[in-house]
Known about the structure:
This protein is α/β, with parallel strands linked by helices. It folds into 2 domains: 8-239 and 447-468, Glycogen Phosphorylase B (Rossmann fold, 3-Layer(aba) Sandwich), CATH 3.40.50.2000; 265-443, 3-Layer(aba) Sandwich (Rossmann fold), CATH 3.40.50.2000. It contains 16 helices and 15 strands. A 7-stranded parallel beta sheet has the order 3-2-1-4-5-8-9, with helices on both faces. Helix 9 crosses helix 14 (413-425) and helix 12 packs across helix 15 (429-446). The longest helix has 27 residues, at 83-109. It is globular and about 65 Å long. The termini are close together. It binds uridine-5'-diphosphate. Uridine-5'-diphosphate binds next to helix 1, helix 11 and helix 12. This is Glycosyltransferase. It is an enzyme of class 2 (transferase).
Amino acid sequence: MTSGEKMNVLMVSTALQGHINPILKLAKRFIQKGLHVTLITTEIVRDRMLNYTNNYGTINQQEIQFEFFSDGLTLDFDRNKDKDKFVSTLRTIGSKNMSKLIENLIRINGHKFYSCMIVDPLLPWAIDIAIDHNIPSALLWIQPCALYLISYHYHNNIDLFNDLEDPNEIVQLPGLPLLEVKDLPSYTLSYGAPRTKQVMMELYHAAKNTKWVFATSNYDLEKEIIDYMASGIPIYPIGPLVSQFMLGENETIGINMNMWEAEDSCIGWLDNKSCSSVIYISFGSVIVLSQEQVNNIAMALKNSEKSFLWVIKPAEIGSEDEVPELPQGFLEETKEKGLVVKWCNQEKVLMHHAVACFMTHCGWNSLLETIVAGVPVIGYPKWGDQPTNAKVILKKFQNGVVMNFGEDGVASVEEIMRSIKEVMEGSSAEEMKKRALEMKEEARKALEEGGSSNKNIDQFINDLKNLEH
Ligand code: UDP
């Protein structure tokens, strides 16, 4: 790079909505601060992006460049169903393709063109690719900082995780609030998927070679944990990484990378609902609920007689996943009160004045978005980091409730109705809303001029400038 030219940052993301979203949002922040971004992901994202019109805003190729590589599988391969094959092919063939792509980009642009590579945690091997190409790297951790600390303990002090058979057993991990075994991320438990354990192990080792670890939260959300980590394993919060309109800022770069077409008609539907009257329900981009879970939610919604907007994502193209069906007659019986869509612009929905609360699987992006919108939560976690995230809500944030469910992970109709009632009209409903609005305020401040996350981004850019001299 010669003086006066923009610094260039490479960003690499897995083809998962919950990963692409925060990475794209960080890219937009960098661009606004004068950097040029090249965002690399797999061809399946390009295939989806081209299909959906809601993805296009103003694409300025001078600011952001998209590059795609093959993950080694055909476009119609069901990556959700055969995750083992997906992850192993991505690591073996996909990594080679990504490396070749970066090599070509360097050939075109020149040695030392890229100041840094920002890496998705599901691609730990990309950190080695950055080393091979002499590019300093940073990890963008897209779960709460608490989860990063748990992962650190898991890999440094495995004894703390031995003999955790009873789901109600209390676990004391340094720097963290007391947790129960059932609140730990699944990969730390004996029944956790070996695939995830392997990726986390690789990430733990690879992360030692990154110069920075960034978190998508903001300092106020997790200050005790961030302070605890500062001396040994520093993590820098640069979030909340949500769309800028949610923070009251101008959205100058209009591009989105939605993997499904959002049904914008639901916004018009919300316009006709009164303030804080609608339950918004979504379980993110990966989870497929069981038939029993869907039946119980449907029954609880019908009995509660509240308005609701429910996202039920269809099966992937070529997928054999059995997407549960709504109980017969449900749509007809609830047509005055409810709307079911396949996908929506969740951020717009959460910002709508008609939305009263969010029934969510507690994916970290969804939680950050609801915090920024000031909308209380009804947590229905399933696996991965979700149970831990849910525990954080209950204990620390106090901006909602978490459902109780049996060993089969299914919440009963009564429990769902109880949770809805508690958040919408229970004795602590007002307190939860107040807490949600306080957190919204803190989140907005973090990315304002002089805010903690904004300062961390500026510091990172300064670090990059210093590395070049
Ligand atoms: N999302 C969306 N429309 C929907 C449902 C989800 O745009 O109908 C977005 C949501 O805003 C969030 C992402 O998909 O940014 C889901 O990420 P999260 O971490 O919450 O869950 P995951 O999908 O990774 O389980």
